[in-house]
Amino acid sequence: MASAREMRLRIRSIKNIVQVTRALQAVSASKVRKAVQAVSATRAYAQQAWKILVHLSEQPGHNALHPLLNPHANVKNILVILITSDRGLAGAYNTNILRKTLLHFKGFSQSITYITAGKKGRDLLLRRGKRVVAEFSNLPASPSFTDISPIGRMAVDGFLDGTYDEVYLAYTDFVTMIHQDPVIKKLLPFEIQTENQAPENIGSHKVQSAFTYEPDQGELLNQIIPRFTALQVYQAVLEAQASEHAARMISMQNATDNAMELSGVLQLEYNKVRQQSITNDMLDIAGGAEALSKSLN
Q1: Chain Cα centroid distance, residue 29
Q2: Cβ contacts of residue 7 below 8 Å, gap of 6+?
């Protein structure tokens, strides 16, 4: 059994850890509120953009409307945009999306290339020997569309010039404060998704009518489709950031509770050890007094 001094030091260390985890929990609680507000503010726009893309993909001869709607004949190279966090201490947040992504593409015979947003995903993929062509880390706490648009631009340019035949988006969808879902979605070429397949945060829409374009169909679509495609990446980053802060807040709360419980158990053990030490000292004193009295007699 550890000595009383060792137990005191351990209890003190655990109490210091509690202070750290409580501070991290408070910071994450503040950040998650702002992140959820950002997600809520952009979801409506992202939903309408998704509906427009669905509408375009349903038009007669939609393959001729824009190259981003046109599947490549032979799929040989696939690009995956993987969104994780820069830091840990977020429970299973990074592990869940990384595991889902690697398992999803494990059986693919095509060449898989990755663009990562977040150091955790980049480091794990490099350790696994995966090909990472670009990485975006240290993103702002409240990113703007301009901050994220280079990721979408790389995906669009790579698809248009034939470097990649398909582009996928892997991120964590924010559902509630205690529930976040890893999601893998095909970004390019755009495909019609049924109601059961469409992500909750985007939704699905079925429209049969045709668009009338003004001023020019080609010019309009050249602006809309790439921008709306990049918007899906931006929305995914916001969802992932909200999920990260929620996961870290819950993780730090659990860490605080566990540390407090462990501190209580150790305090009880310390009291027992201290009481036993006092009892032994009293027995030694009583025994010494008894021996002294007998020797005097």
Answers
A1: 15
A2: 266, 269, 270, 273
Q: Evaluate if residue 54 carries a pLDDT over 70.
A: no
DSSP class of 210: P
**57, 59, 80, 79: which is closest to 68 by C-alpha?**
57
Amino acid 294: pLDDT: 76
Identify the burial level of 152 via C-beta atoms within 10 angstroms of its C-beta, where 0-12 means exposed, 13-18 middle and 19 or more buried. buried
Beta bridge partners of 153: none
Nearest to 31 by CA among 253, 241, 256: 241
* Planar angle of CA 202, 205, 210, nearest 5 degrees: 130
Look up the CATH superfamily of 22-251.
ATP synthase, F1 complex, gamma subunit (3.40.1380.10)
Please give the pLDDT value at position 40: 86
Give every CB contact of residue 61 below 8 A, 6+ residues apart in sequence: none
| Amino acid present at 1 | M
Burial class, 261, CB count within 10 angstroms (exposed 0-12 / middle 13-18 / buried 19+): exposed
Cα–Cα distance for residue pair 244/137, rounded to 1 Å = 14
Average pLDDT over residues 233-247: 93
Residues 155 and 167: beta-carbon distance below 8 Å: yes
Token pair listed for 146: 């301009």
Give 169's strand partners. Answer: 81, 185
Q: What is the pLDDT of residue 210?
A: 58
- Sheet with 131-136, side-by-side order of all strands: 131-136, 111-117, 77-83, 166-176, 179-188
Sign of the CA dihedral running 151, 223, 185, 245 = positive
**Cβ atoms 120, 85 nearer than 8 A:** yes
The single-letter code of the amino acid at 133 is: V
Q: How far apart are the first and last CA of the chain?
A: 41
What single letter denotes the amino acid at residue 81?
Answer: I
